[in-house]
């Protein structure tokens, strides 16, 4: 596990001192995944949802080259509204620090930092994964390899349907990342409830996920995340037909405009938001809020009923 020089927000320092549960949150969804100005409102709603469910939110990002665990409201606002915020995966962190940059952290960077900070639960929307043309482009998100070496529970709605879901599940297996559905064995496809693939395991309550964390620690398993896939209820998903149509046009634009690398995911998400008249945005927001609530309840369950907060060792 990598160690970083980390600055803690006051609210996170207080929560840890008092032994209260903390949930890590990423900032790339704020800066690069959601359109302005909704993104600022959503960032605040995510934090409030974590609080409403009994845990302290620690939104993670970089300000002036410093990694911050627990951005304050002004810092969240800055990352939401500023134009020059870098998208930071693990490999970018030290370069961005050297450049004193402002940056938003992806699932990969956020989970690495959270684990280094002793935070065991992380809520996001959807993971990065294997892109559809990966056999030619080699485009596979560093989220997958980061999760392979990071002991954290990531609550997400599976991987975005813009990706190759089956290939992503295969890579997660190879990389030794645990995967379980929350109250289902069907792996969700982010905007849509059913991503078309089964997973082997299902976990049914925050307490059962807390038992996973304890068992993992007792087994001395120090590498490998749990991807806990929390699907939207069927009546809340994006209309699958609208979804397929939008995806098709998005993939076409992607190749026409020759968009590659780290711009791919933000481009496709913004294409969805603009061509579904905000319907996908509404769905995206619901996904994140539901995952944040569940992550908070898991953090609460993992913190109570044990001698110390299991999986939350102080750094
Ligand atoms: N999930 C969302 N919106 C996002 C992302 C995930 O609902 O914007 C971000 C996450 O930060 C994830 C990143 O880590 O996209 C993956 O980017 P890439 O495919 O370039 O690795
Ligand atoms: Mn990529």
UniProtKB/TrEMBL annotation:
<keyword id="KW-0479">Metal-binding</keyword>
<comment type="similarity">
    <text>Belongs to the pseudouridine-5'-phosphate glycosidase family.</text>
</comment>
<keyword id="KW-0326">Glycosidase</keyword>
<dbReference type="InterPro" id="IPR007342">
    <property type="entry name" value="PsuG"/>
</dbReference>
<dbReference type="GO" id="GO:0016798">
    <property type="term" value="F:hydrolase activity, acting on glycosyl bonds"/>
</dbReference>
<feature type="binding site">
    <location>
        <position position="139"/>
    </location>
    <ligand>
        <name>Mn(2+)</name>
    </ligand>
</feature>
<feature type="binding site">
    <location>
        <begin position="141"/>
        <end position="143"/>
    </location>
    <ligand>
        <name>substrate</name>
    </ligand>
</feature>
<keyword id="KW-0456">Lyase</keyword>
<dbReference type="Pfam" id="PF04227">
    <property type="entry name" value="Indigoidine_A"/>
</dbReference>
<feature type="active site" description="Nucleophile">
    <location>
        <position position="160"/>
    </location>
</feature>
<comment type="function">
    <text>Catalyzes the reversible cleavage of pseudouridine 5'-phosphate (PsiMP) to ribose 5-phosphate and uracil. Functions biologically in the cleavage direction, as part of a pseudouridine degradation pathway.</text>
</comment>
<feature type="binding site">
    <location>
        <position position="107"/>
    </location>
    <ligand>
        <name>substrate</name>
    </ligand>
</feature>
<keyword id="KW-0464">Manganese</keyword>
<dbReference type="GO" id="GO:0005737">
    <property type="term" value="C:cytoplasm"/>
</dbReference>
<feature type="active site" description="Proton donor">
    <location>
        <position position="26"/>
    </location>
</feature>
<dbReference type="GO" id="GO:0046113">
    <property type="term" value="P:nucleobase catabolic process"/>
</dbReference>
<dbReference type="GO" id="GO:0046872">
    <property type="term" value="F:metal ion binding"/>
</dbReference>
<dbReference type="GO" id="GO:0004730">
    <property type="term" value="F:pseudouridylate synthase activity"/>
</dbReference>
<keyword id="KW-0378">Hydrolase</keyword>
<protein>
    <recommendedName>
        <fullName>Pseudouridine-5'-phosphate glycosidase</fullName>
        <ecNumber>4.2.1.70</ecNumber>
    </recommendedName>
</protein>
<dbReference type="InterPro" id="IPR022830">
    <property type="entry name" value="Indigdn_synthA-like"/>
</dbReference>
<comment type="subunit">
    <text>Homotrimer.</text>
</comment>
<feature type="binding site">
    <location>
        <position position="87"/>
    </location>
    <ligand>
        <name>substrate</name>
    </ligand>
</feature>
């Amino acid at each position: 596990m990598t160690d970083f020089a980390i600055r803690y927000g006051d609210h996170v320092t207080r929560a840890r001192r008092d032994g209260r549960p903390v949930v890590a949150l990423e900032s790339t969804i704020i800066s690069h995944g959601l359109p302005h100005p909704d993104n600022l409102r959503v960032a605040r709603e995510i934090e409030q949802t974590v609080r409403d469910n009994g845990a302290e939110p620690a939104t993670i990002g970089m300000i002036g080259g410093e990694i911050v665990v627990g951005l304050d409201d002004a810092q969240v606002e800055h990352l939401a509204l500023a134009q020059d915020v870098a998208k930071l995966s693990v490999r970018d962190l030290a370069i961005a620090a050297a450049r004193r940059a402002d940056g938003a952290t992806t699932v990969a960077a956020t989970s690495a930092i959270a684990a280094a900070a002793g935070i065991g639960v992380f809520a996001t929307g959807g993971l990065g994964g294997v892109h559809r043309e990966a056999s030619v482009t080699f485009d596979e998100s560093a989220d997958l390899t980061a999760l392979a070496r990071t002991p954290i529970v990531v609550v997400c709605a599976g991987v975005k349907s813009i990706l190759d879901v089956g290939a992503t599940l295969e890579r997660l297996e190879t990389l030794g990342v645990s995967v379980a559905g929350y109250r289902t064995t069907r792996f969700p496809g982010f905007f849509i409830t059913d991503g078309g693939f089964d997973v082997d395991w299902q976990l049914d309550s925050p307490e059962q996920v807390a038992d996973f964390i304890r068992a993992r620690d007792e087994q001395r398993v120090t590498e490998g995340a749990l991807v806990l896939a929390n699907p939207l209820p069927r009546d809340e998903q994006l209309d699958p037909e609208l979804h397929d149509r939008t995806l098709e046009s998005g993939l076409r634009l992607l190749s026409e405009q020759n968009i590659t690398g780290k711009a791919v995911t933000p481009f496709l998400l913004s294409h969805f938001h603009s061509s579904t008249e905000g319907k996908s945005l509404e769905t995206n927001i619901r996904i994140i809020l539901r995952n944040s609530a569940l992550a908070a309840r898991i953090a609460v369950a993992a913190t109570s009923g044990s001698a110390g907060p299991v999986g939350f060792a102080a750094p």
